[in-house]
Amino acid sequence: MSDATVDTVTLTIDGIEVSVPKGTLVVDAARKAGIEIPVFCSHPKLEPIGACRMCLVRVEKIPKLITSCTLQVAEGMVVTTNSAEVAAARAGVLEFLLSNHSLDCPFCDKGGECDLQDHTFRHGVPEGRFEEPKILRQKKPMPPIIEKVMSRCVHCARCIRYCDEVMGVGALRFINRGVCTEPAAFMDGGLACEQCGNCIEVCPVGALTAEFYDLKARPLDRKQTNSLCQYCGDGCTMTIEVKGRHSGETHIIRTRGHDGQGVNDEFLCVRGRFGYGMVNSPERLKQPLVRRDGELVPATWDEALDLVATRLAEIRERHGADAIGGIGSEKCTNEEAYLFGKLLRGVLGTNNVDYRTEAKRPFQAASLARLLALAPPEGALWRLRHARLVVLVGADLTSENPWSEKQIIQATAKDHQRVLLAYPRRIRPVEYASRWLRHAPGTEPALLRGLAGLVANEAQAEQVAATVGVAPDELQAFAKELQDAPDVVLLLGPRVCAGTDPDAAMLAAAQLAQTLGVRRPAGADGPKRVDVVVLARHNNTRGAQDLGLLPDTYPGYAGMKTAGFAPEWGEALPTRPGKSTPEMLAAAAHGELKALYVLGANPAVAFPDGERVRQALAGVEFLVVQDLFLTPTAQQADVVLPAASFAEKEGTFTNGEGRVQRVRRAMEPVGEARADWEILQAVAGRLGRPWPYLSAGEVAREITRLVPLYAGLSYQALDLPVSNFLVRPAPLAAAAAEPVVSGGAGPAAPSGEYPFVLLTGQTLFHSGTLSPWAPEMRRLAQHAYVEIAPEDAATLGVADGERVRLVSPRGALSLFAHVQPGGAPGILFLPHHFAEAPANVLLDAAAAVDRVRVEKE
Amino acid sequence: MTQARAGLRETCRAEVEEILARYPERRSALLPLLHLVQREEGYISEAAMREVAEIVGCRPVDVFDVVTFYTVYHRQPVGKYLLEVCRTLSCALLGGRKLTRHLEERLGIQAGETTADGLFTLREVECIGACSNAPAMLINNRIYENLTPEKLDAILEQLRAEASERVAPPEGERQGLP
Ligand code: SF4
Ligand code: SF4
Ligand code: SF4
Ligand code: FES
Ligand code: FES
Predict the structure, then answer these.
(1) B61, B62, B66, B125: which to substitute to probe chain A, counting the most A Cβ within 10 Å?
(2) What is the pTM of this model?
(3) What would be the CATH architecture of the domain defined by A756-856?
C-alpha cells in the first residue's frame, strides 16, 4: 500500500539522483536507480544481516567501504558502486568464497542459475591466489528430502533466516565455526520440520537441494510455465518446470515460487513444492473406460461420450430431470465449475448440483454470501499481515492454509499482532496464539453465538462456558480481548461448518462481526474494523461457490433468479432449489436419483458414512465419473472419463480471498486425457446443445458477461506479478436484525460403548484425494494413522506405532496409533485422505459429534 | 544413549536454580548450564543438550549451535587429561606443530583422539592467549608455556605417575567452570 505521508529521501548513487521512501536500504535504492549491486545474504523478505560482504559500496563521509544491504538511505547521501576500489572488494570477497568452493558446477543443480556463478562472471577475477589444498566436504542428507553440499555454501544464512522469520519453524542453525561452519539441524541429522523446501529456494547457490530434483535436469532442459498451486485456497503462484519434449515422456520435474510473483512472493508450502508428482503418476487414467459385463474396460472417447449422452437423455425422459444429479469439484477451474452448472441446469434441467463432499449438513448459499461480503476488500492475505487481532476459529491453519498461517507468524513475530485460537485439538497455532480456547468438538455454533452474546453484553459467561466446555474466566478474557482490540480479523475454518448446524454457525459469525463492528474502541474516532475470512481448503473452493456449484443458487449468489441465464443457458431453467450432496446420496439410496455425474470428486472416500455412500453409488442406475485416477468412486462408475490435471489445462482459480488467477498449461495431457471443460462441452453437444467454446478463455468471457460478480474479468488483467482481480459478493440484509441467541448444543456426553470423540481432517502433507497419488508426498507420510493423547494411550496400553482398531456405530478401521504429546484426552484425530483407511466409514452423517472406541489389535 | 542419564535438574537442582536466578532472561543461562553439564558428566551428550534446551526454553538446535561453536565444550567423553596444543600464529612459528607431532608419536594417537587407556585426549586449538611464551598448551585448562619436546616427555611422565597414584584427578583440575 502506498502511503502519501511517508517521507522520501533523495540520494545520489553513481551520479544518479534517486528518491525513495525513508528507511529504504541503499541496495534497494540502487536497484530503483537501475544499478544492480551483487548480494548473497540480502533478501527482500528477510531482515538484513550483512553477513557476506558482497554488497560493499563507498559512501561519502564513511571511512570504510560499507555493506549497502544494512545501510538505510539518508538525505544527500553520495554512494559509489562503480569505482575500482569497490570492484576490488567484490573480487576479494569472491576469491575468498571460492578458496574452498568445490567448483563442481557441472554437477550442481544450481549450475546456470547460480548467484555465485553470475557474480564471479561479472565481478570476479579469473584466478585465485590460494594455493593451499581445498577443504572439501561431501554431500550430506538431511532426511527426509533435503540434501546439503557444504563445499558450495557461502554462509549467507538465508536458509536459516527464512526458516526463522517466515516459516517460524527455526529448524536450522549454523554449527561449527570457521571454514567448517554450516547450516544444520539438531545433531546435524534429519529435519523434523515442515519440509517446505523454501530454504532450498532462497539459497543463492547449490548448497541445498531436494533429493527428488537433484541432478535430474539442467536449466536448458526445462520448460517453465507460470501457473498456480492446485492444493489449498491460498492460491500461491508457482512455476511449473517440465522436462521432455514429446507427449508421453513429458513430466514435471520441479515446481517453484519466484520472488515478487503472486500472493505468495516466492513461498511455497510442502504440498505446493513437492506435491506435483500426482501429475506424473503412472496410475493416471489415460483413456475412457466403460462398464461391460460388470468390468470397466477401455473404450474410445466416442463410445464413452455417446453412452453418457444416451443414458442421461434416457433417464431424463423416463424419470424426469430431477432424477439426475451432479457432484462437482473444488479443484477444477472456474470455467469448468461454470460449465458443470450449465450442463446440469441448462442442458439437463436440474438444480441437483453441489461441490461439497464432506459436509454432513449443507449450509445455505445465502449464509455463505453473507460472510463473504464481510471479507477484507484489499485481500485477506494482505490483511492478515496487518491486523492487530486475529481470531482463529475451527481452523488448523498449518495444515489447511499454510501461507495464510505464515502471514500471521510474521505479524506476531513483529509484536503488532495477537492471535486468539479456538480449537479442540492441540495444533501448531497453539505455539503463537496468546489465548487458546479448547472448546468441545461440535460446539462451534454455540461458541460463536456465545461470543456474540458476550460482546453484546447479552449472555452469561458461565452459561456459555458450560455449553462449550471451557472455563468461564478463559471465555470472558477471550471475549474481552475481542471487544478491546482496535481491529479484528475473524478467520473461520472448516470445522465451523463441519457439524450438523452450519447455518447457525455462519449466522453467529456474522452476528459476532456485526456486534463487534458497531463498537468504538477506546480512544478511536471511528467504529472498529472487523473483517471476516472464510478459509478455503481447496484451490478453487471459492470458485465452485461463486460459480454456482450449490443447489440453491445460480452463479454469483443470485439464488434461484434465472433471469440472467435464461436465454443463454436454456429456455426453461429449473427454479426450485435442488438437492445437496447428502440429499442426492440419500435419494440415490432410495432409488429416486437414477443418474449421478461426478466431476473430480470422490464421495466414496470423503462423505460421512462410507458404507452407505458405497451403497448409494451402487444404487444409481448410471454413474459417470470424470477424474485423474481410478478413485474408489470411479471404480463404481459405469463410465470413467480421463481428465487433464491442473498442469495440463488453461483457466482460472479463485483463491479464498476472492482473487481470480490464471492456471496455465505446462504440458500436454497424458494419454487421451482431456480438460474437464472440453469433456463437458462434448457431452452437451451430444445432448443436442452444441456449445461454441474454442478455449477456456471463451468460457471466461461468457462468465464475465452473465455473472455480475465476475464482470470485468479478462485473462490479460490476471497476469503476473499478481492478479488484482478480487471478487466479493454484495452485502446482504443485515444479520443483526435477527436476535442474538445464546445456548445451543452443549458438549456431547461421553457414552460408555464409544468413549472417544473422533475428529477427522487434513494434515500438512496430505490435503485430499490428490496428494496421496504423489509419491513424493507419500514418502513424507506413508501410512494412515490415528492420533491419540498420551494419557489415553497409557490407559489402553497402546504404544506409539502399534496397530489399533477403531470401532464406531457405523464401521471399523484398523491403523497405526500415533501418540501425540500434549494431545487432548478423549479426542482422537484421524487424517481423512487415505483411501486404504477411509475415515468416512466411521462417520455418522446424522451425528453432531462422532464417537468411537479403540481396540488393541 | 548407552546409559540412562539422571538429568541436571535431579543431580544439581540447587545449582541450576542459582544459575537461572543470575539472569533476567533464561536463555542467558545457556553457557553456564553447559559448563555445569560438562563438569558433572565430562562431556555434553545429546540428551543433555535437549535438557538444557528445555530448561532455558529454546530449541535443541540452538544449544547444538552453541556447543559446536565453542571448542571448550566436548561432545564426546575426553580422557582424564585433555591436552590442547595451540596451533595459532605465534605458537605455529615457534614449533607448535612439532609439539603436536611429538605428542601424537608418544601417545600413539592422532590429534582429536583419546588413548585406549582413557588417560589422554589430544587436540589442537586456536590461540589460548599465551602468545608471549609460545609455544603453549593447556592441560585440563592449566596453561603450560615455552614448551619443548623434552619438557613434554617430562610432563607426560609426571601425569602418568600421578594417574597411577590417584583414582580420580583432583577436583580443580577437571574440566570445570573457567
Ligand atoms: S524445509 Fe522449510 S521448515 Fe524445513 S528447514 Fe527448510 S525452510 Fe525450514
Ligand atoms: S546453505 Fe545456502 S542459504 Fe544456507 S547459508 Fe549456505 S549458501 Fe546460504
Ligand atoms: S499454501 Fe496452499 S496454495 Fe500455497 S503452496 Fe501451499 S497448498 Fe499451495
Ligand atoms: S548482501 Fe550485504 S552483506 Fe551480504
Ligand atoms: S598463538 Fe598460541 S597462544 Fe596465542
Answers:
(1) B61
(2) 0.94
(3) Beta Barrel (2.40)
- Asked if pLDDT for residue B3 goes beyond 60, the answer is no
| Residue of A37, A46, A52, A160 to mutate, ligand 4, most atoms within 8 A of C-beta | A52
Q: What is the mean pLDDT of residues B59-67?
A: 98
> Would you state the cell numbers that stand for residue B178, as one nine-digit string?
573457567
pLDDT tens digits along A456-498: 988 999 999 999 999 999 999 999 999 999 999 999 999 999 8
Topology at the third CATH level for domain A95-210: Alpha-Beta Plaits (3.30.70)
Residue A492 CA, chain-centre distance (Å), reads: 15
Yes or no: domain A3-82 corresponds to CATH 3.30.450.40? no
Q: Which ligand is nearest to the Cα of residue A166, counting in written order? A: 1
Cis peptide before B135 (omega within 30 of 0): yes
**In this complex, do A173 and B46 lie within 8 Å of one another by their Cβ atoms?**
no
| B65 touching chain A per CB within 8 A | yes
CATH architecture, range A289-361+540-734: 3-Layer(aba) Sandwich (3.40)
Residue A34, number of CB atoms within 10 A of its CB = 10
Which one-letter DSSP state was computed for residue A674? B
Kindly state whether B168 is in contact with chain A, defined as any CB-CB distance less than 8 angstroms.
Answer: no
Residue A661 in contact with ligand 3 by CB distance below 6 A: no
Domain ranges of chain B: 8-69, 81-175
State the DSSP H helix or E strand holding residue A595, giving kind and residue range, or none if neither.
strand A595-599
Q: What is the DSSP letter of A306?
A: H
In CATH terms, B8-69 corresponds, of 3.40.1390.30, 3.30.200.20, 1.10.10.1590, 3.40.50.300, to 1.10.10.1590
Using a CB–CB cutoff of 8 Å, tell me whether B76 touches chain A: no
Q: What is the C-alpha to C-alpha distance for residues A99 and A23, in angstroms, rounded to an integer?
A: 36
Contact A382, A404 (CB under 8 A): no
> Atom 4 in ligand 2: which residue has the minimum CA distance?
A159
Is B59's CB within 8 Å of A186's CB?
yes
Calculate mean pLDDT across residues A142-146.
96
C-beta separation of B97 from B105 below 8 A: no
Q: Which of B95, B160, B161, B84 is nearest to B126 (CA)?
A: B84
The confidence score (pLDDT) of residue B178 equals 34
CB contact under 8 A, A173 and B65: yes
Instruction: Report, as an integer, the average pLDDT of A106-116.
Output: 93
pLDDT, tens only, A208-260: 999 999 988 888 889 999 999 999 999 999 999 999 877 678 999 999 999 89
- Say whether residue B117 is in contact with chain A using an 8 A CB cutoff: no
Q: What are the DSSP calls for A227-269, one per residue? A: EE-SSSTT--EEEEEEE-SSTTT-EEEEEE--TT-TTTTT---
Topology, domain B81-175? Glutaredoxin (3.40.30)
What's the gap in Å between the CA of A51 and the closest CA on chain B?
A: 17
**Minimal Cβ distance to B61: which of A171, A176, A177:** A171
Q: Residue A389: CB within 6 Å of ligand 4? A: no
Q: Give B150 Cα–ligand 3 centroid separation in angstroms.
A: 68
Q: What percent of chain B has pLDDT over 70?
A: 90
Contacts of A478 (CB under 8 A, 6+ apart): A420, A422, A435, A437, A451
Look up the CATH superfamily of A389-485+487-527: Dimethylsulfoxide Reductase, domain 2 (3.40.228.10)
Domain boundaries, chain A: 3-82, 95-210, 289-361+540-734, 389-485+487-527, 756-856
